Amino acid sequence: MLQTAITSIDDEALTLLLSVFKGHILTSIHDPNGNHVVQRIIEATSKRLKSFKANGNGELVSSLAAQLQLIIDDLTQNVHMLSVHSYGCRVIQRALEFCEEDQKEAVLKAIIECKDKLIEDQYGNYVLQQAIATGNEEIR
User: The whole model's pTM is what?
Assistant: First the structure.
């Protein structure tokens, strides 16, 4: 239910929701239901950011970008642990799929640092596949 609501709540409510998750992202990612919420937050926030940038809505862009960056920071600092986890790997994949280029590059850089450990891992393999699919020529 919350996953569906995230796509339709107003900008202020989305910003508030992001602030509530501050400090609880990793716990949420390891939860069977919470990881889906984090995935949807990444997707919805990224899509709104792109829309706001296209429409020149700078104030909302900076607010949402700062909130999303907190999630990206948690992901990049824990990329190996998350990539080898059944739920965490899905969140990493969504970040690669939907985030802004600079955020995606930060996640990709963290993935590259532990790529040798991910190649043979059951879940890390999926993260590497997504990195290849969404990364630039240098990443491939």
Answer: 0.90
